[in-house]
Amino acid sequence: MPQLDSAKPPTLRRDLGLVQATALNMIDMVGIGPFVVLPLVMHLMGPYFLLAWMVGAALAVVDGMVWAELGAAYPEAGGSYRFLKLAYGEAKWGRLMSFLYVWQTLVQAPLVVASGAIGFAQYFGYLVPLTEWWQPKLVSGVVVLLLIALLYRRIDDIGRLGVLLWVGVLCLMGWLIFGGITHSTHEVAWLPVGGISDVPGLLFSVALGQAAVKTIYSYLGYYNVCHLGGEIRNPERVIPRSIFLSILGIAALYLLLNWSVGTVIPWQEAQHSEFIVSTFVETIYGSTAAKLATALVLWVAFASLFAVLLGYSRIPYAAAADGEFLPVFAKVHPTKQFPHVSLLILGA
After folding, report:
1. On the CB side of 194, how many CA atoms lie within 13 Å of its CA?
2. Phi–psi pair at 158, nearest 5 degrees
3. CA torsion, points 236, 242, 245, 247, in degrees to nearest 10?
4. Which among 189, 191, 211 is positioned nearest to 266, based on CA atoms?
5. What is the rounded distance in angstroms from the CA atom of residue 189 to the CA atom of residue 338?
6. Mean pLDDT per 10-residue run, the chain (348 residues)?
């Protein structure tokens, strides 16, 4: 008598298309990072701050080529776990390298999510003063619990949520860029007027190197789709396209955002701002609009944590399903078909 399909162990579903994959990549990339890094880059680069964002984008494209080829060739859950194992040899050093990477993820992922939640609480203080010691902790804790609740569902539902969060990110960026275009009062040079030769060579190179480190940090996240390789439809095509669409789309948004801020607030002033987006919007539209902008920044920060925790949760699962890690992480929800145990442990 043939075995019933219901007796088969549940597996991951390939339900994410190009739009969902690109959206999850882009919300992972943005977060609060670019709004924090923006004044730091201005401080390092002065009037040539846009050049650092161009260099960061170029580095991201080069790195994205590597991720695109690996993701298309090995579209499985876990991304880096699988790539390390294959690169160093499945029967040799690859087992050790991938195993260490999984343990690193168990430490790194909660710290990344926790730090993001703390940053969320700090920015939330611009809207609602958090005067008691326990209030920021409460906000941070609620953020993590909400993330787990939203991610505890089928991957196609997560894809739709990712697109919704992505729309909010685009609305904020579009609003800020539009504000700069319609209220520009200062000129911003895209490149040094007389070329690179017009700036001091060694000092400029050092400043550009330091600034590029900060901008590339703001671009990171385009590889998140590789961690979800086992849940992507037509991964050989979708993974590379989503990576390059993410990098180019975010690069355009970052460049226009920085240009917009620089045309409204001189870089000499903007480099000292702790809440540059709120200051920018308040300068143009007033304090009420600044609070709305801050709320949208919080939306962006939450969206980034949503994508980060989603991608990280697939790494211990991939190793466990491969027989190289604690078996409990290999469990897949019987009806929702996602690695629920991995998600719950990392979230906890």
Report:
1. 4
2. -65, -40
3. -110
4. 189
5. 48
6. 55 94 96 88 92 95 97 94 93 92 94 91 86 94 97 96 96 94 89 60 80 93 96 97 98 96 93 87 91 91 96 96 94 95 96
